[in-house]
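**User:** Here is a favour to ask of a fellow structure person. Please take any protein you like and set down a full record of it. No explanation is needed for now; the record alone will do.

**Assistant:**
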Amino acid sequence: MSQFRLSRRTVLRGAGSIAIALPWLEVMGESREAQAQSAAPAAKRFVTVYQPGGTVRSKYTPTGSETSFTLSPILAPFEKMKSKLLIVDGLEMKCGDQTKLMVEQHQGGLVGMLTGAVQPGANSYPKAASIDQLLARKLSAGKARASLEMAVRWATGKSHGRLHPINALNFEAQAPYSPIPPRLDPQQIFTDLFGSTLPNAPTDATLGLMRKKSILDFVNKKYSALSARLGAADRQKLELHLTKLRALEQAIQTMPPKNDSCVAPKKADTSGYNPKSGLNADNNGAVKDVQTDAAIPLVGTFMMDMLVMALACDITGVATLQWSDTEAKHTFPWLNLSEHHHFYQHDGGFKPNECEKICTWYSKQHNYLLERMAEIDMGGHSLLDESVIFFGSELQDPPAHGKTNMPYLLAGGGGGLRAGRWLKYDNLPHNRLLVSILNLCGDNSTSVGDSRFNAGPLPNSPSLT
């Protein structure tokens, strides 16, 4: 037999995100049986939620021990979902530390949050992919959307409603690693994902089924070409695998566009909300759109509902929600706060009580997202159980723009993540958390972002035990 060899990670790739895994074959060398039988399956979904402005550490940090702890005032809204929450303290965003690397305070933190990379200079983007886009190649293979990026009340200040390093969080997986703007119009997002006023217009859900059919047709041809290069035993294994794919293809032909867990969310009336309000923004937040600001809770809930169903309907495996940009120069009428978040952080002098009030409200929204995901039955387990959710910000200390002891949370159970704990590390770079997230989602990378801050995953990854 020839010396033809395949990697255990080999997939058959086509256009876009088409990627179908192969069964273990002898030409791959070591059998999968040599791997630990108890290894948890990789997470199937990854969600990032960005909250601007850091936190108030004295009101954020829990008390107690790793497994027996009391939530702080800011984190208290998570009490019902505490068992699904992993609090990760003691990490520093070294790639975004403006005092050491001479980058803009908020920009460096935001563009580094998911990339682990350094901003080359003010008003510039890093030359690196964000982990959500790295994972989209795997988690969204065969789905209608590689990823879904949404934002509420975005680009509120100096960027004047335009894409800019001060509001960019997601970056493409391939060079030149272009920033990906989030979608802002909740009504258009709903129409694209779940329905249209036009009869028979395809939605992302129905397009996903069509894409799966085309992928299976594509891999049938690829499998045939590969089979000619294999030995008899491997050809038999490959044929068995192909038979299963053909059965799946036949099932898809008669599959309804939705399953029991895939139901379009209730469409919210957001007529008072202007998704393009940022275009009218001034640098310091003096120009206010109180009507749009007042709709933020409604729009945010609507977007979270759509995000959950986009995952449950298998439209995508990767999603991001930004609660504004790093400036957050909008008001909070529902909290009786008439100034913008940046004012309370440092523009008007640090206002810890107001910042605590804002951070606690965000925790309530984050808890809502977890509760919604926990309600979705994916066949004996919840959507939350097979997912990893990452909650983060661009800094920790609002008045000083400090990035030590960042306020990071993970949630879910995907990849064997052991939640219900409070982990404390000793000033490790947050790049190691990003690597751990990749590992939880089935990516075996040992580094991400700037090489100066890489030392593999966090201790005891991937389950962060």
Remarks:
- The longest strand covers residues 421-429.
- The first helix runs from residue 57 to 60.
- The mean pLDDT is 86.
- Residues 52 and 462 are 27 Å apart (CA to CA).
